[in-house]
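Example 9 (inverse folding). The structure is encoded as follows.
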């Protein structure tokens, strides 16, 4: 999903990569926020696969569509989603546990491979590097991130979205991440994101995609995540 609104280094990002990217820190500090939204990244990947007809919604399950995905991250998500049976009732397994952690890691790896971020050894008390604690992800292309976050923020503050920024806004709304973009007026931005997630303020045709496909998909994935989290303590 390509848009000329994004910075030159980020125009080829997939939707899950873009969600992870705009949730980064503009000053280049370690992007701790990127390690949290596994369910949101999975939802973004499924949305892109459905919009591209690489995966089809078959009611209670997902199945392969006529267009084969070419991006390695989307290929991995499609395979993990459809190959075991594609049942929506099994979505909790796709967004929690080892597979959810893999989704985060693979998305972050793609940002590193694209040169947008890099990994640094974790430090204890700011002095001692401890490889045993792994590495911290830090934004490298801070100028590009500043530009891209501004693009999304403008939509939240009232600018007309195109298809790509509309999909990002819908995901941020359902994932309760509008606040992370620091809009000028948070209540107004939250209401605008809610409206876009309902198919308003978007170009013709995109509204139908959002109402019939995008918002229901994101809600389904995040509901599966919530149900799994609620059920886990009693297991």
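The amino acid assigned to each position is listed next.
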């Amino acid at each position: 999903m390509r848009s000329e609104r994004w910075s030159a280094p980020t125009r080829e990002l997939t939707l899950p990569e873009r969600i992870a990217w705009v949730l980064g820190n503009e000053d280049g500090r370690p992007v701790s926020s990127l390690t949290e939204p596994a369910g949101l990244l999975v939802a973004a990947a499924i949305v892109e696969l459905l919009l591209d007809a690489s995966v089809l919604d078959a009611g209670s399950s997902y199945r392969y569509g006529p267009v084969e995905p070419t991006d390695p991250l989307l290929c991995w998500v499609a395979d993990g989603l459809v190959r075991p049976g594609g049942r929506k009732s099994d979505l909790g397994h796709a967004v929690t546990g080892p597979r959810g952690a893999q989704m985060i890691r693979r998305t972050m790896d793609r940002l590193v491979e694209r040169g947008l971020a890099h990994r640094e050894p974790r430090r204890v008390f700011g002095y001692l590097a401890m490889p045993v604690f792994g590495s911290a992800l830090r934004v490298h292309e801070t100028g590009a991130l500043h530009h891209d976050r501004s693009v999304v923020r403008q939509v939240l503050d009232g600018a007309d979205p195109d298809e790509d920024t509309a999909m990002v806004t819908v995901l941020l709304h359902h994932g309760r991440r509008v606040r992370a973009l620091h809009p000028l007026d948070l209540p107004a931005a939250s209401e605008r994101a809610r409206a876009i997630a309902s198919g308003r303020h978007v170009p013709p045709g995109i509204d139908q995609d959002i109402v019939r496909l995008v918002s229901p998909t994101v809600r389904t994935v995040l509901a599966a995540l919530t149900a799994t989290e609620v059920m886990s303590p009693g297991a």
